[in-house]
Design brief:
It is a single chain. Helices cover about 90% and strands about 0% of the residues. By secondary structure, the protein is mostly helical. The chain has one domain. About 15% of the residues are buried.
Length: about 120
């Protein structure tokens, strides 16, 4: 049973777009609403994309990028907090964290795609 769970986790980290599509299809079937399903799917799979990009960079170039991911997350959150304070004169931390999380989903989904293509030519 542990082998099946380990295999599923390894597949999820290795191919997060498949997990994203699967989660999206399940949520769309349950809710019937594409927009909400897309946002929830992005929220649920963002961490998989981050982990996958971390390991792809480590595999391709032997660099540990954990601190860069952490600092990038904090930098984007800080920037969005300042922008929200300037525009709305009020900071809603839940909204800032949600925007930061979704922004990082987009960044890491693009990075995953770029690194997958690079990996095809390097390895």
């Amino acid at each position: 049973m542990m082998e099946i769970a380990a295999g599923a986790a390894a597949t999820a980290v290795t191919v997060p777009p498949l997990v994203f599509i699967g989660v999206f299809l399940v949520l769309k079937k349950l809710s019937g609403r594409s927009g909400i399903s897309l946002r929830l799917s992005a929220d649920m799979t963002a961490l998989l994309f981050m982990i996958s990009v971390y390991y792809m960079i480590d595999l391709l170039w032997g660099m540990a990028t954990g601190w860069f991911i952490f600092i990038g997350f904090l930098s984007v959150a800080s920037l969005l907090t300042i922008l929200q304070w300037i525009v709305l004169e009020e900071v809603r931390m839940a909204k800032v964290l949600k925007q930061t999380w979704r922004f990082h989903f987009l960044v890491y989904a693009v990075l995953y795609t770029v690194l997958a293509v690079i990996g095809l030519f390097i390895i």
